[in-house]
Structure to design on (175 residues):
């Protein structure tokens, strides 16, 4: 299973503006289009309950969106079999199960707590990071609360607008 972690961040590393839940209020049109394309094209998307609760989203009908939560029972009325699921599995067990079901790629679309759980367990293969030319000084980082020491290798960088929004793709080096 190839796991791709996707985030958009300010230049000072904030993935929220001052902790506000709505990301699209500050991201560029180009990043929003790129994110929507990723959202459409990835058949399997995983996010944490913090991200889902911030902006309850749906996936295109043919895609599968899985939300990690320790309280799946709280979301019973939202479940759409095979399409929108809530699970309390660990990242490693979830990846094992989805691989055994035939999935070969997963887009992990945040947020920071879930991203950190996957990074800690060396489950992430690529990081696709959009850098918006903005500084917020406060807000979340995409990895939180732990000591990590992860090396990455730049695969590609693309300037997608005149102001200089950059879409960076990195491979995570597994030593
Ligand atoms: N800029 C970006 O690209 C971007 C992307 C995504 C999100 N965000 C922002 O990030 C914010 C949410 O961040 P967040 O860190 O609170 O949300 P998160 O990582 O999406 O969700 C964290 C929650 O997921 C549940 N969870 C279940 N299993 C877990 C596991 N193995 N590891 C970690 N958490 C697990 C826990 O809640 P329960 O068990 O209690 O349900 C935990 O509090 C929102 O404001 C959102 O807009 C930004």
């Amino acid at each position: 299973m190839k796991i791709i972690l996707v985030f958009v961040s300010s230049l000072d590393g904030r993935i929220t503006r001052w902790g506000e839940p709505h990301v699209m209020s500050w991201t560029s049109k180009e990043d929003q289009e790129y994110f929507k394309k990723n959202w459409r094209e990835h058949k399997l998307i995983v996010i944490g309950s913090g991200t889902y609760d911030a902006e309850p989203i749906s996936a295109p009908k043919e895609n599968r969106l899985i939300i990690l939560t320790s309280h799946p029972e709280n979301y019973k009325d939202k479940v759409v079999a095979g399409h929108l699921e809530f699970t309390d599995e660990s990242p490693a067990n979830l990846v094992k199960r989805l691989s055994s079901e035939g999935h070969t790629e997963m887009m992990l679309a945040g947020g920071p707590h879930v991203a950190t759980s996957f990074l800690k367990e060396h489950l992430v293969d690529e990081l696709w990071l959009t850098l918006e030319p903005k500084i917020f000084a406060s807000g979340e980082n995409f990895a939180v609360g732990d000591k990590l020491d992860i090396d990455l290798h730049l695969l590609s960088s693309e300037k997608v607008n005149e102001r200089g929004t950059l879409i960076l793709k990195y491979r995570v080096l597994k030593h």
Residues 7-8, 15-16, 21, 23, 47-51, 54, 68-71, 91, 109-114, 117, 140 surround NAP (CB under 6 Å). Residues 95 and 127 are 17 Å apart (CA to CA). The domain at 2-172 is CATH 3.40.430.10 (Dihydrofolate Reductase, subunit A).
